Amino acid sequence: MTQLQFFIQQAINAISIGSLYALMAIGLAMVFGILRLINFAHGDLIMVGSYAALLLLAAGVPFWLAALAGICASMVMGLLMERIAYRPIRGAPDVAMLLTSFAVTILLENAAILIFNPTPRPFPVPEALGTAQRFGSLRIANIDLIAIAVALVLLVALTFFVTRTQIGISMRAASEDLLAARLMGINVNVVISYAFAIGSILAGVVGLLWSMRVGKIDPLMGFYPVLKAFVASVIGGLGSLPGAVLGGYVLGLLEILLQGLLPSALTPYRDAFVFIALIILLLFRPNGILGSVEKEKI
Amino acid sequence: MLSFEDIHVYYGHVHALKGMSFEVMEGELVTMLGANGAGKSTTLLTISGILKPTQGQIIYEGRNLSGFSPYSIVRSGIIHCPEGRHIFGGLTVRENLMMGAVQRRDHSQVKQDFDWVCSLFPILSERIGQNGSTLSGGEQQMLAIGRALMARPRLLLLDEPSLGLAPVVVQIIFDVIQQLRQNGVTILLVEQNARKALQIADRGYLLETGQVVLSGSVQELHANPAIERHYLGG
Fold first, then answer.
1. Which residues in chain B touch residue A179, judged by CB atoms under 8 angstroms apart?
2. CB A69: neighbour CB atoms within 10 A?
3. Cα(A37)–Cα(A227) distance, integer angstroms
4. Which residues in chain A are closer than 8 Å to B98, comparing Cβ atoms?
5. Distance of alpha carbon B159 from alpha carbon A202, whole angstroms
6. What is the distance between the alpha carbons of residues B157 and A61, in angstroms, rounded to a whole number?
7. What value does the mean pLDDT of chain A take?
8. What is the pTM of this model?
9. Per-residue DSSP letter, A84
């Protein structure tokens, strides 16, 4: 394999994993922007969607239908989460909301352990998605290409949504200034439900892509993705949607870069180096790359 | 049109409004004067449904508004342009204005109102694609008022529209307020600048520690020595 091929392969790998982080981070950012809530239970939406899809696949449902149902399951769970856990404590101190999200996480993960038992289950990948494309000695997994393409489509759709539709602009308005949004007659409950629904749909999509990438699922599978998404949104600037996307890709790139550059004895500690990089970044840009310093005009 | 009947509001533990009563008639420009902490902004936030009274009734066009959510209050024709402008900094001027019309479905009329607001504040049309945060303080205040007007309010609540602005901008804003009133918009104006407010208002209320302590026509208020001493700096 030539150096160029190696580079292309790694770049695609980085963009593919970065796409997943970006899609996850958007869900966190949307909710955080409006509610100042870091919804750690966002990761469990991945698990819910993946299990729903797996159960349907096991029952013989065609793949695309099971995938769609899995995404819907994530969305429904996201909406329920907001309605049952977060809406009653809206306006409570940030710490109370954060703790509630931990409670939701513990509840969902343990419910999943009870229902599905903790052993990982293989996640079947359809043949068309499981193969790879060969270009000479360059080998690119279909699932990577699909992840990149899906993310691209979703990001374009999302950009259209937040800049061209009234509910999307309302969502940005509410995350800019919740009081003004309410005074202008924006129905905040509707906007928040949309934020949860969209974020959860993205999590459902990530769940499927993630499960196919890893090849197995388990009740605690949401922990890593949500942690990564959180890091990504901190890198980009917490609450900023472009920041979440940028942070996702930067994180993906950083991980793959470290994987390639670190001597093999150190690769198990890759994440430690990622966090060192994060700390250095935050020293210079405490609000992330795109985060603006909170300033008040008098 | 709007009447407060013995309204009590708590802000956390603070008893902010202690039996407020006042009235605004259709077509009037009523001003509310008082020192910081007298309850002026609290009164407006209570009308717009952000704060809930623990006691008393808010009657608007014969209906009791207590318990209405902020968006249904906007739907009933009341809009509140808050103190400190509260424009959406990351949204363009155009998007800011469209957010004022978020509840309206009469799209062709909204377009007309958009042009009308741009003609009231021509500077906004020059900045139409810029983010709100890039505007100067005076332009932001114009944007905040323009955004509120996009709701086509019948009752406009204005909280300190002249605060911190250069005299020339204050004049533009007060001219617009007078023009709105001639167009038949009922206005409740909270102002630090009592002299200016009494120039254009029909009636006024003086608040102290969450209660109305004085009310009357602007002539009566002008003639009152307490007003003269504390608010007009005579």
1. 50, 82, 86
2. 18
3. 15
4. 166, 169
5. 41
6. 58
7. 93
8. 0.92
9. I
